[in-house]
Amino acid sequence: MLTEYRVIMNEQKPTVAEVLLKELFKLGVEYVFLVPGAQIVPLLVCLFNENKKDIPVPIIASHELAAGFMALGYARASGKIGVALSIGGPGASYMIGAGVTAKADDVPILFITGNIPPEYFDRGEFQDASNTGTNDSEIFQKAIGTSLICKKSEDFGNVMPMVRKCYYDRKPLHVQIPINVQRATYEAEINGINSYAYPVFPTFDYSDTEKTVLLIGHLALNRIDHLKLRDFVKRNNFGVVTDMKTRGIVPETDKESLGYLGFNSDLRALEVFNNQSLLATNSVVSVGAKKNLFHRYIDEQSVNIMYAEPDAFDKWISTFTSEQSLIIERGRWLNELNKITPPQSVPLTTNHKVSYSDLLETINKVMPDNTVVCLDAGQIRRAGSIFLKCKSPRSLIQSDTLSPMGSGICASIGAQIASSNKHILSLFGDGSMRMHGMELATAVRYNLPIIFVLCDNKSYASVKAQDEVRNLPETNWGSYADLIGIKSYFIDDKKTFMRKLEEAFTLDEPVLLWTMVPGLLDDELEKAQTLEYKNWLSSV
Questions:
Q1: Sign of dihedral through CA atoms 242, 246, 252, 254?
Q2: Which CATH superfamily is domain 2-182 in?
């Protein structure tokens, strides 16, 4: 089929498909994640044509939802826009889960779906994705907020301005392009709104107090220099609290890092904003943090808040001065806050398992500083949030809000492709393995040196229900690994895990480390980590 289209396409005039891919490449998109199908053949022709230059590289996933999650991992790791491509109808509907995750987590992803030619709409044709078929555009519109339809080539002129807006607003976008429009020629100018402003907040006067904390949110990523930030907070003894996406912008091993607010918030960060505590901050400089973070955690009436626009932050820290006596006081304050520690673990009484705390302690000790960790859903996400230490920006990728099972497996593939000079470590449970374990075959196909760590508790452990609902059947994941061609090791003690993890970081191929873990993280903690605020989950 691809050969047929190579013959009939006019090589002298660019097609909509070619123009779209070249424009995306200009925007910094280096890869497109996809599942092939008949409706997108013109786009496939361009993507897989070795003679075409300046277009993204195609990565074939095993499932459309996985392609969407790979695009999400790519966007999170690179700071660029992720692109997922599929046919309309079933392919588009499969990707919706990635779309709503991108919207909830403020990740810019472009979802491109095909369709049959418009003249065949409303005839009951195979895979009609129009309003008279599966109605893809309306579904995406309701799910993520924005969807465009190119019913003719002239409509394409409006696409790239919206793609740029999607990138700058950190929001997903869906574009439906029927097959006949993809292969139509396009010679018009691309409509050009080339720059957009990030959301900004007004700036207030700063009060130089003895308990100052910087609250750094993800809208500041790529917009402030993390090395200058680290030097600044060390010189002035400023504490730093982040949201979940911004973890590591100041290394969490530094005393100035007071952790993050979000899922299983760091106990120090909670103490900083607890207005009943003697250690509570009295001055906050907010840089790129969304307002909903304040609504959830901070009493805005009890602290002095300065909203600093990220693009002006470097200038602000270069001109800031503080009295030495205040720097000393802030240092004492940081020392007191750092006496607050995460929940402590107790020795396991069950043999042939690796505790969550031992697993994460080993990872923190062994992994190189340039490692990106992709956390999946369930107990491992909870344990990873508490025990992992992030040492650089974009070094921890997880879904902050929805946490779809299996998304971390797929995101690790996108992250590896975005960060070929970094190590990628993917942590997930056996429930997630059942959903998206086939994507390990994608890592094998492209020889991506990802370390997949399967934390097997044979259970949907986060669900408080009877055993027939929670329990999963025992599975030999080593046999599964053999079938898809990935090297694997079964591990049942901490020493073996450390040895195999150290070995895995030296490999230039994917590897699966399969280990048994306790059913619940709370089973190994002296005191269960309580929810930091009351919500619906506390009553489940």
A1: negative
A2: Thiamin diphosphate (ThDP)-binding fold, Pyr/PP domains (3.40.50.970)
